[in-house]
Amino acid sequence: MGKLVIDRGNFTDLTSVSNLFIDEYMPNANGEFVKIYLYLLRLVSGHSTEITTDALADLLCFTESDVERGLSYWERLGLISLSRDEDMHVNGIRMEAYTTNKFYVKSILNSSGSQVSARAVGDTFYGNYEDVNSEPALIESIAPANAIPAKRKYTSKEISAFSKDPRVQQLTFLAQTYLGKTLNSNDVNSILYMIDGLNLSSDFIEYLMEMCISSGNNTLGSIEKSAVNYYKRGITTIDDIKFDTKIRKSIYKSVFKIFGLTDQNAAKKDVNYISKWTETYNFSEDIIVEACNRTIEHTHTASFPYADTILKGWYNNGITELSQVEQLDEEHAKEVSEKFSSLQASKASKASNKSCSASLKKFKNMDERTYDSIELEKMLLSSTNRK
C-alpha cells in the first residue's frame, strides 16, 4: 500500500491538539468522549467562553447525560477541571494544558464568562471557582491515561444526586433483588464507582452482576473487583466479556496452542470458527483437536478454513466420536483402494481393446484380391495341357 501525502493547502483556521493527547489519551478513550474534548478545544481556540451541556449535546447529537459522562472522564484524567452546582450539574469547565509530567491552567469556560481556578486535579467541585490572577497556576501531574481511576468515597450529597440517575436506580434495584438485601453505603459506593469512576455502561454492569452472582460471587465488592480487572484489560462491553469468556475455555486454548496463537492475537473470526465447531457441529474437544492436527500436518499453516472443511465433512457423515473418525478413515482408504483397482483394471482393458482394434485395422488394410472363376479354370486347364 502506498504512502498517503497530506497537503494542508490554504487551511489556516486551525485548532491545536497536543501530540501527547493523541499518543497517550486518545487511543484509550471512547470515541464520543474524544469528540467532546476536541470540541472544547475548538471553543478555546475560537476564544469562546460560554457553552451549556445541553447545547453541546445538541451540537454533537448526544444526550446531556453522555456529555456529562464525557466531561467527568476527562476530569478524572486531569485534562479538564469542572465545577458543579448543588444538583451536581456541570456549570464550569477549565481546560488544562499539559506537558509529560506537569499540567498548567490554559483557559477557562464558565457560564458567566469569568476566570475560575481549580483546587486540585481530580477533585470534585461544587459552586463556582474563585477568581484568580491571569498567571497560569501549576497543577500536580496525574496518573497515566491507562491507569485505573482511583476509587473514592462519595459524599451523601453526591449519593443523593446520583440516586436520581435512572441507571443508578436500575442497578440498585437489581443488586438488591439478586443479593436479597438492602444495600449499605459500601455497596452504593461500588455501584457509583463502576458507573462514574470506571465509566462502564449500566448494561455492562448488569451483565457482569448476573455473571458474578451466578458463579457464587455474591457481593458488590467482588463484582466491583471483576469490573476493575476487565477495565484493566480494555474489556468494557458485553460482547468483549463474551469473547473473553470463550477464549478462556479449554477447547479454545487447545486450538490456539496447536495453531501457535495466544489469547491476545486470536481474531474474532477464528474464535467464531471454534464456536461453530462446538455449538453448531457439537463436536467434542478431541475431535476438534484431531482436525486441527491434520490441518497442520497437511498445510503446515494455522488454517481455520481448512480445519472447518475437515470438520464439516465429519459432521455431514454423522461423526460424534473420535473412534468413528478412525472408522471413516478405514472406509475411505478401502474406497480409494477399490477405486484405484477399478481404474487400473479399466486401463488394462482399454489397452487390450486398443491392441485388438489395431490388429483388426491392420488386417482390414491388407490388399483384397478378387478372382474370376472362369479365368481360374482356364489357368488350371492350360497348366495341365502343358504337362
Automatic annotation (TrEMBL):
SUPFAM superfamilies: DnaD domain-like. Pfam families: DnaB_2. InterPro entries: DNA_replication_prd_bac (IPR017019), DnaB/C_C (IPR006343), DnaD (IPR053162), DnaD-like_sf (IPR034829). Residues 174-242, 269-327 form the DnaB/C C-terminal domain. Belongs to the DnaB/DnaD family. NCBIfam families: DnaD_dom (TIGR01446). This is DnaD domain protein. It comes from Eubacterium album. The lineage of its organism: Bacteria, Bacillati, Bacillota, Clostridia, Eubacteriales.
